[in-house]
């Protein structure tokens, strides 16, 4: 079956611009995660959605970052007024539920802020 | 300091050799996940361990979680070039979110 998909695969943007990253989880998976992978920080948790519950936003690095998940499926991560330190690979993962199930990752979106 | 320490940071082995990668936590783990990543790609799920002393195998890869649930090892037998990549351990510390904390990764190269 189809895995987690993300778009775009690569995004180059100018400092100060807003960007939107999209994630399509595996069908039927109720839990969705966003992570960020960068050279200096490794792989970091950003935000988590589970069904209709309030998202866990504890990993978002600043208020420039936000995410939403519409209809319990597709999710969009938005970064406003991008900074160079936002350059990273943004990975999305989904799991069957939010508890003790393996997370399946998408291929990521490589964001470069110039 | 990293909550999850992986060792070694990088490893070069000859094809056919065995190797072990370790992942250590200072705190008890509720779940330990092993992933593999190739450059420019996402993470590929390998195995999940939850019980102390648990051991799982898939093809030539075996992962173990110690009894205290603070250390895990990933062992590859008779390595092949297809095993090359970055191996990441991820830990679930419990709670409602199941968000994972990841180690720094181990870069594995297999020389034919």
Q: If you had to describe this structure to a student in words, what would you say it looks like?
A:
The complex is a heterodimer of chains A (114) and B (112). Chain A is mainly beta and 114 residues long. Chain A has a domain at 28-99: Immunoglobulins (Immunoglobulin-like), CATH 2.60.40. Helices cover 0% and strands 48% of the residues of chain A. In chain A, the strands form 2 sheets. In chain A, strands 2, 4, 5, 8, 9 and 10 form a 6-stranded mixed β-sheet that branches. Chain B is 0% helix and 55% strand. Chain B has 112 residues and is an all-beta fold. The mean pLDDT of chain B is 90. In chain B, the strands form 2 sheets. In chain B, strands 2, 4, 5, 9, 10 and 11 form a 6-stranded mixed β-sheet that branches. Chain B contains no helices and 11 strands. Chain A binds chain B through residues 4, 6, 31, 33, 35, 42-45, 48, 50, 56, 58-59, 91, 93, 95, 98-108, 110, and chain B through 2, 30-31, 33, 35, 40-45, 48, 50, 88, 90, 92, 96-105.
Global structural class of chain B = mainly beta
CATH class of one domain in chain A: Mainly Beta
- CATH architecture annotation name of chain B: Sandwich
Order of helices and strands of chain B: EEEEEEEEEEE
Q: Which two chains have the most extensive interface, and how many residues on each?
A: A-B, 29 and 26 residues
Rg over CA atoms of chain B: 13 Å
Distance between the termini of chain A: 37 Å
What is the CATH topology assignment of chain B?
Answer: Immunoglobulin-like
Secondary structure layout:
The complex is a heterodimer of chains A (114) and B (112).
Chain A: E1 5-7, E2 10-13, E3 19-24, E4 31-38, E5 42-50, E6 65-69, E7 75-79, E8 88-95, E9 104-105, E10 109-113
Chain B: E1 4-7, E2 10-14, E3 19-25, E4 31-37, E5 43-49, E6 55-58, E7 61-65, E8 71-76, E9 85-92, E10 100-102, E11 106-111
Parallel strand pairs in B: 2-11
Antiparallel strand pairs in B: 1-3, 3-8, 4-5, 4-9, 6-7, 7-8, 9-10, 9-11
